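Exercise 7. Predict the structure of Adenine DNA glycosylase from Brachypteracias leptosomus.
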Amino acid sequence: MSQLRAAAAGGLRRSGGRAAPPAEQSRKGASSRRGPPVPAPPPPQHLFSDTAEIEALRGSLLAWYDKCKRDLPWRTLAATEPDADRRAYAVWVSEVMLQQTQVATVIDYYNRWMQKWPTLQALAQASLEEVNELWAGLGYYSRGKRLQEAARKVVSQLAGRMPRTAEDLQKLLPGVGRYTAGAIASISYGQATGVVDGNVIRVLCRLRCIGADSSSPAVIDRLWDMANALVDRSRPGDFNQALMELGATVCVPKAPLCGECPVKQHCRARRRKLFGKPTLVPDVEDCGVGDCPLCPPAAEPWDSSLGVTNFPRKAAKKQPRVERTATCVLERRGCHGALEYLIVQRPSSGLLAGLWEFPSLPLAQGLQEEKQKEVLADHLQAWTGQPVATRGLRLIGEVIHIFSHIHQTYVVYSLALDRDVTLEPALSSSRWVTEEEFHASAVSTAMKKVLRS
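Solution. The predicted structure, encoded as tokens:
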């Protein structure tokens, strides 16, 4: 507990904030005495309160990381690049790409990105179309867009110099949140600040039997406290990467390799699995504090068959909304005889912002095929500038694509124009492309599925 108090006093309670001056702290204290009572802190067994244990955990984890870490291109750049701004940029790109994307997928994207835009200045000069084209397949295209917007801000407003602390990174750069700021600052600049991502959440929840909803703000704040208290002061970047590496390769979600874990002697979930409820290791349900904010809910007790995978607990996932969209693959023969397709650009904000797609429009639930053809034909006329007959629309089938929050069904139609028709796009945000040009354009994975159908 003393470690956590020290971390809070050092301004590390939240990576985006600073410790209040003494006068401000005293005013806040007076204000809190007039308000509702402050809830009691969690019991010590949920936290890291022993200095010797913290030092031992740091040493074991860093020794394992030095021996077992994966050879990844962004780690090489972070370790060898002498220029602080280039180093931070390299780490930044990797962290944005790695959010909800597997390392194996990211490596090729990262290498191509850094080869094309090796500096902030190079990225700032690129077009959004180029960024979207390279980002295609990584998901969440808005991340690539925000990354470029932030790079342009660094170049135009910050004289090309990246902010040097987690606090300033989060405050000054659009799209840089608490985790990304902490990762850049610790890995690139050696700032002793922790990080909390999905892997770290899993590791910390198992180490300290934290069974409350790990996505709740209260639990997340406690995990940040722990991460900031644990981070090694002399090697913060390596420590944070080691903690994430442990979660990615050993302390995995469904089949953790507990026997290979370098910090298994500090893991309360493992002790619980091996020894049940010994007196020296209190049961998390019997931690001694009523309504403990970090214990599992009473309705979800320990399941011995799950072992350490009892942790972390998450709230029930919200079901994605169901949507149906009519999409038309409109094709013609180009001047050289090659088959061409009409693609149109999506709005600059919202889902898949700025990407190209086949002409599409949302469908009301329960709409019959003939009515679908009518509304689609009207929509196509807006893009082609000419009336479209419904009889020419041929139903190909349905393509299902799952976004994080949308279960999308594309009802796919095709429309082949006569060979002697030379239709020009009616709007500047549309164009004819060959199949090769289609795949080279900034199109979503869903549209590639549609073309394959």
